[in-house]
Write the structure tokens for this entry.
Amino acid sequence: MATPLHAPRVNNNDDIVQVIAFRVGVGDYIEKGDIVLDVETDKAIVEVAAENDGYVIKLMCEVDDRVAVGSILLWQGSSLDEPVPEAVVAVSGGGGNARPTARARALLKELGLDASVVPTRGERLTLADVESHMAAHGIQRRDRTPAVSVSLQENLPDVPGDLCDLNAEERGMLITVSWHRDHAAATYLEVEYDPKAWEDHAAAYASANKLMLSPLLPLLTYRLVQLVKASPRINATVVNGKRFQYRPVNLGFTVQAGETLYLTVVRAADTLETRAFIEALGEVQRHAIQRKLSREETSGATIAFSSMARWNVSRHIPILPPYCSLMIAHAAPKGSGRAVLGASYDHRILSGFDVARLLMDLAKPPA
Amino acid sequence: MNLDRDSIQAAVRAKVIELAKTLGMDASEIGDDDLIPASGYVDSAAILELVVWYEDAYQMPLKQEEINIDNLGSINSMADFVVRRKAGG
């Protein structure tokens, strides 16, 4: 059965959103969580993600259209020839002005649905009406993390200049920095350690496996994954005032490809053996340099790692990726005989004690 | 790209020198049998760039397990590996 994607409510006071870009077209296959379009209100630009897997079979609006919150933006189907339900093609064919009950209103708000699109069977719009509408259109309660918004309320500088659009990578960075600033209670601490034990461990592993690339950072990150796996509380974020406990450990790993910084992702890293993990990490790094990263390889990080040892910096304080409560910062100034493991962390989830203990464990290679 | 072994060897050498230069190193003295990872001229990130360039230049996608010292450890081994693969070996 075809399923609709509805226009989300971005701000409590905005009943209309403007479509500013489609990232998919009819015929594309998209997965739950894929970003499919961008909408704008007076205050923010928001990415809208698919709530289901399926082919895009019909777009219900165009770029620059202003649509009501809850309107159907597009239809998805399990095949390209799946019919769009005629009765609901018209966005306005809903329940009119029936006043929703309190419980119906709460569910409508949670779903980002406009009451006018939901048919009613009585004088009031009831919870049962909303649930019937959900069942009829395959709408599910949202269990994914919400989209990140970017403020558009800044004044222009009092200096002549031009506003320029950001490219995709720059927009991604803006969203990351905005989440870090607006949502996370970001804090930083670091420990120094003697890198010799890790260097010896990596050299022995490289020699035994005839590796071309130093496995030092892959082994460090694999150790991080194992430590997080043993302490799942670290692998979490906060959504709508509640703890969101991730099930898989998806490792984010920064890769500088030319002038672009990517956060590549090895998904379900906690299920991989050492060698398989090193190969998976090598694969996403190659894809980053080739500029051939898939969406799966650039999204969904639950923890992250960044090293600036290559640039000989002594300290860097990473920005937390959206919905990620921990990002390790590795530095190893050449010739100093010391190395640094730091961490930006979300204090809503982790305490300094949690992170210090993790860093001290991470500073030692596995026995 | 010329698939003559000497040309491959020269191209790989030029790429190693170019990558080392971006790190402020002069790799012009690197030997054709020197282990590139152990040479100190290029770090892991630069070796990764070398591998990606190599795959693209010789239209030869590599499996992750093929990226090892035996196949790609030195300028000579990288040249030999192209010749071997193109010959179907």
Remarks:
- Helices of chain B lie at 5-22, 44-57, 69-72, 75-86.
- Residues 35 and 74 of chain B are 5 Å apart (CA to CA).
- The mean pLDDT of chain B is 91.
